[in-house]
Amino acid sequence: MSQSKSASLIDSSILIPAIGGAFKKLNPRSLIRNPVMFVVAVVSALTTVLFLKDIATGGQSLGFSFQIIIWLWFTVLFANFAEAVAEGRGKAQADSLRKARTETQAKLLSGDDRTNFKMVPGASLKVGDIVLVDAGDIIPSDGEVVEGIASVNESAITGESAPVIRESGGDRSAVTGGTQVLSDWLRVRITAAAGSTFIDRMIALVEGAERQKTPNEIALNILLAGMTLIFVLATATIPSFASYAGGAIPVVVLVALFVTLIPTTIGALLSAIGIAGMDRLIQFNVLAMSGRAVEAAGDVDTLLLDKTGTITFGNRQATEFLPVKGVSEQELADAAQLASLADETPEGRSIVVLAKEKYGIRARDMQTLHATFVPFTAQSRMSGVDIDGSSIRKGAVDAVLAYANQVSLAAPGAGGTAVATRATAETIRDLQAIADQIAKGGGTPLAVVRDGKLLGIIYLKDIVKGGIRERFAELRRMGIRTVMITGDNPLTAAAIAAEAGVDDFLAQATPENKLTLIREEQSKGKLVAMCGDGTNDAPALAQADVGVAMNTGTVAAREAGNMVDLDSDPTKLIEIVGIGKQLLMTRGALTTFSIANDIAKYFAIIPAMFLAFYPQLGALNIMGLQTPQSAILSAIIFNALIIVALIPLSLKGVKYRAIGAGALLRRNLLIYGLGGVIVPFVGIKAIDVVITSLGLA
Amino acid sequence: MTLNGWIQILVFCGIIILLVKPLGGYMTRVFNGDRTFLSPIFVPVERGLYRIAGTSEREEQHWTTYTAALLFFSLAGFVVLYFLQRFQGVLPYNPAGMGATEPNLAFNTAVSFVTNTNWQNYGGESTMSYLVQMAGFTVQNFVSAATGIAIAIALIRGFARASGKSIGNFWVDLTRCTLYILLPICIVLTVVYVYLGVPQTLGTYVDATTLEGAKQTIAVGPVASQLAIKMLGTNGGGFFNVNSAHPFENPDAISNLIQMVTIFAIGAALTNVFGRMVGNQRQGWAIFAAMGVLFLAGVIVCYWGEAAGNPLVHALGLDGGNMEGKETRFGITLSALFAVITTAASCGAVNAMHDSFMAISGMIPLINMMLGEVIIGGVGAGLYGILLYVIIAVFVAGLMVGRTPEYLGKKIEAKEVKMAMLAVLVLPLAMLGFTAIATVLPSAVASIANAGPHGFSEILYAYTSAAANNGSAFGGLSGNTAWYNITLGIGMWMGRFFVIIPALAIAGSLVAKKTVPESAGTFPTHGGLFVGLLVGVILIVGGLTFFPALAVGPIVEHLAIGLGQTF
């Protein structure tokens, strides 16, 4: 299910079954879900019956009627085809998922003893059962790890082959049925019965079996049904107008006018657009639990983003060595590097890297130096090394100061106590000034001391991801406000927020104030999107309009969100919003196009229709169509073919550009509004030329 | 077309544009319950009326209560008006001794005035007593206009308020509109009309002896007062049968200008009230601009059609425009302009016979009405009518900015779309439906004066005028038959209440919604782009439905006359 496997638009393995699907969907029960196409099917059936009667009684211009009827049915079939193609793309993914859902045997535990289990079929497991999963076993159903730690291959659902760690407690406790334990063992409490597991739901979602119309889709269907009714009135009244004028109009011509006028283009493509929108998210490894969520994504006004991992790289990094007066940078860097050599934390490693890159200090071997590493403890809040009687420490500024004070008191230096103390007081002021400066800038100062002598500060910084500022500027142009969520203090948070270019931040965030923030935004009428993975994120995920749960997260988080990101990448929230907007735009563009088409169709059919008794109306034939028959036929053929022509657009979607709503509207109105007025004039004329040269009319 | 003609048209447009802001500001204050310079006089009256009615200005209504009050009030008005006509023979103020009005005519006329249509299947001076004219028609002219404005205000509140339950109080809106807006302006106008030579008397008709010695009865009456509200309230029901073509009802070019301006004044100012109440006057101007574009397009075609004249007459060596059915004191420009204004604004008063217009220029009044009277429109009705189109326009195109549709921060969802479509659907149903039946009904076809497409236009015009609550007549159709009285009555009733109820339902649904704050991603609804979009949607959704009917009516007639053929 990775991006590379995404089905291309013209894939014969999808198109060929879709042809069969198009005929299967002629079933009235499936047609009735789409009011516009249902009406087309009804009038097609009606004209077919009349046509058969005409054959029996020997009616006139049977060839013409026959062609109209063929194209009426094609209109319905093309609509069904569009839907079948869209569904076909999901089916391919569902099939690969189904393979993961093979029948498994589960080791059902009855007590605490790990060896005391009996083999049962996976399907027989109930919620609350505890099973044992050993290395090499397939996890029988969704569950929560209650004991153990193991590496699990989740490629069946994520497409990602690198194993992930699952362990009891914490935020990595959820396991998914169908995935495989690679090493170690897990005791898993089953949380989903057979048939309702995550994979089952994914299959249902990608197949579109559970697809329900979204609120906007329902509203759009009402509009389309209303327009259909309006055109029922427009065409149903024509026979009496004609009879007043002393003429009559064949039913098949009226039906042709009616079908071309009602919004068949959007009616035919509406469900394909919806399915394709969900599908685009799936291609992107995000699973939307409902179409409503995708729609809401397009509407999002406020984006809550976790600082760590989304806006900044996960860890702070050393960016500068700032010595106190009388100490050289080189000296400080040397001490800092020595103190960090054995420090395996990302911060420690970044100090070694900085010392090497900026000051050319090579890595040294602890053993040859006879150095002993002093690890970080919660009490000392420092780490460092002891080498040949000399001790170097780095750590939080206050901790280091206290330590330096202690050391210098214990071993007064050569210059006498008074001088040393004075010098230290000056140095302390200097050190603290540097530290304050760094804290104000959103960084973390780390003081370095050698044998009681303060050397200076290591500047640890949250590194804001490259290009993220531009992303936020783009979001601002989309009208979306970004709020950074962080556990940092307000000062640090403000500095990072300013650097990253977010609009606002929530410092010292707790699950409670996160929830409060969401509620506040929503009370202002805004739609909020966020992502989260921990159990404590669950209330906020549930409250948010778009809650994206990370697949690595807990069961509670996954249940609370309305989307699951299989890659567990929080930056995706931005793309999810884009996909939601794309879905809405495609719908709007094709609706506008469909309605704008009507002008040309009137100009094709009206003169042709009344020509027999009002030849003056020939002046309205501005396209210069050959004969009345060819005019009507061209209009109905255009109407059917445009559906097929727009299938790729409806599946691919209209590209969203963050250029501001005004510019976007101008652009789309020009393409789909004005284009919708002009294209059918050209298209109908072209079809007219073709069918008259073929002698069809 | 002459420079002089264009200057007259531009003067008219200029006056309207200048009126929009001050009148809009005043009306906003009135409906917000703020103090105005008339408050010292009317506040005690207002309070007294509320006490009698058992309501209070602080009492607000849910949309269903508001609608129920409105429907009850209209029904009561209908019943009173019907029986006033039926019993006018035995009631006072009947110097001409008019007898009881026929039941189906009384039905038609009562519906007509309650729905602000003022379709007249009767000749005023030869059918109705002074009492019916004053206590019946003039009263309905005021309150049906005030009702329309109240609905518009209620719908505006739907957009302007957030997370609310109520949309105002119908009785308060009705009272304030009548007392503070309609009544004072009409008093001033009446005086002005009297000064310009319009009669205002309760005396009997005047008998005169002409120069040839023939006896002539000259109808007079309380004309000036009815004239004032007939225009200001876009009612259009004339005191005299020929309406504002009559020299007593429209003596000269000045009175004609005042009449044209007062038709548009309130409707145009309501766009500003809308802008003010939703907190951004540009939103109001955008709607005004969309109306203006459609209006000017109509004026250009109509004026061009009339000024170009009849090619068949030209062939006889008579140059110039089409003066048939026009008053020489108004000429081609003012007749064409008046015709466009009166049909754009749901007024229906006429100063020339639309039946005698060239086919293409006669089509403009038809189109104006078919679009649902949203070009300035009837007082109130024009604004709530165009807001229904706005909802559809925003819904169709709003998605194209990548958000679910919203207008002024309110999400446009299934309920709003359903109601807007219902309202849009009712016009073709009444207009085309009844026309389709009438054109195949021999007894109905017998009422028309001309054969062929022109006769068709006469029937189409009648039902269009009725359903759009315009009330102007094409002429040529003898409408006072049981068939037309009843079906036109039903048409008027459908065109009024099946638009009002959905509009108020939308107000009720919107008022409960939160207002989404505007952002860079919000669909912009105050610029030229939106104006263009709205015009496009009005023409395509509202207008295209009627294309077949127009094709076999005025369009074919126009094309035929070019070929030398008349009907």
Characteristics of this structure?
heterodimer, A: 697 residues, alpha+beta, seven-stranded mixed sheet, 22 strands, 17% strand, B: 567 residues, mainly alpha, 2% strand
In DSSP terms (H or I, runs of 4 or more residues), the helix count of chain B works out at 20
- Report how far the terminal alpha carbons of chain B are from each other: 26 Å
Order of helices and strands of chain B: HHHHHHHEEHHHHHHHEEHHHHHH
The whole-angstrom Rg of chain A is 35 Å
- Global Rg of chain B: 23 Å
Low-confidence stretches of chain A: 1-7, 413-420
Mean pLDDT of chain A: 85
Task: Characterize the main sheet of chain B.
Answer: 2 strands, antiparallel
Helix content, binned percent of chain A: 40-55%
- Structural class of chain A, by secondary structure, is alpha+beta
Shape of chain B: globular
List the quaternary state of the chains: heterodimer
Strand order of the largest sheet of chain A: 10-22-21-20-11-18-19
Which class best fits the helix and strand makeup of chain B? mainly alpha
Overall strand count of chain B: 4
| Range of helix content of chain B | 55-70%
What's the total helix number of chain A? 26
Strand content of chain A: 15-25%
Strand content of the residues of chain B, in percent? under 5%
Largest interface, C-beta within 8 A: A-B, 76 and 68 residues
Low-confidence stretches of chain B: none
